Amino acid sequence: MRAEDVWGERWTSCANPLAHRYMETAARKGSLVCLAADMRSVAELVDLVEEVGPHIAALKTHVDMVDDFSLEAWSGLVDAAQRHDLLLFEDRKFADIGKVSQHQMAGVHDVRSWADIVTAHRISGPDIVDGIAAGWADVERIGGVLLLAQMSSSGNLLDADYTAETIATGRGSPHVIGYIGNGSSATEVAALRQQVGAGQMIWTPGVNLAVGAGAMGQRYGHPRDAVLAGSDAIIVGSGIHGVENRAEAAAQYAEASFAALVERGG
Ligand code: S5P
Question: How many whole angstroms from 206 Cα to the centroid of ligand 1?
């Protein structure tokens, strides 16, 4: 399906080129799945991407949980992501002052040189977005920030006022492509969509075909409910990498998420 047809208003309202790239990939592959590739080695990451790559639209990493990280090994993962046309999203959850965040984009992992998207908390002030953008500018790249407006974990401190402040920071920013919302609660996602409007994306973790409580305070909602409530990307980790047949699971999440987008009508 053509991206403009399937995404409707989101396609016309989201000006950010990275958002458009994601939407095109998602439309072509019939999948709103962002894989949370929470693996401990580069080889496991590459294996996983090769296996499920055709069924996913973006790849999310936690580079600081990888035991055998080296920039050279990591370039193998970057290659695999590029071959599968996946935006590479480092879920770093930056939270420091702007200047420090700029330098944290460098360091041993050099996130600025390979990540297209990173996450950031709004807690330290709005300047964190400029700090991260400056990190990308240092290597003459442009990336997009997803601000954490809600979280899926139980007992988190992101209340409604915090969410509103976060959206106020992100609205109109050329660097903010959207927000992380709580995919375990369709009510919260719908409320977030109401506030965000059509012009930015919402990506939601806390999604699993088996709804309910997950490990260590994680909560899960159904992918269909999250998308119908306004999510543009479902972030799925253990629902895919934690099962026996990972490709089959990825295909199921792709099918459920894309059918919901079509049902939503853009
Ligand atoms: O509120 C959040 C925000 C994020 S980015 N809750 C989350 O779970 N995440 C991330 O989504 C988390 O870091 C993990 O990589 C993924 C969820 O994984 P799963 O195995 O529970 O699906």
Answer: 6
Residue extents of the structural domains in the chain: 3-264
Tell me, using a 6 A CB cutoff, whether residue 236 lines ligand 1.
Answer: yes
Tell me the C-alpha distance between 179 and 192, whole Å.
Answer: 9
Q: For the segment 147-161, what is each residue's pLDDT rounded down to a tens digit?
A: 999 999 999 999 999
Percent of the chain with pLDDT over 70: 100
Best mutation site among 235, 241, 252 for ligand 1 pocket (most ligand atoms within 8 Å of CB): 235
Per-residue pLDDT at 142: 96
Q: Is 218 in the pocket of ligand 1 (CB under 6 A)?
A: yes
**pTM passes above 0.70:** yes
CATH topology of domain 3-264: TIM Barrel (3.20.20)
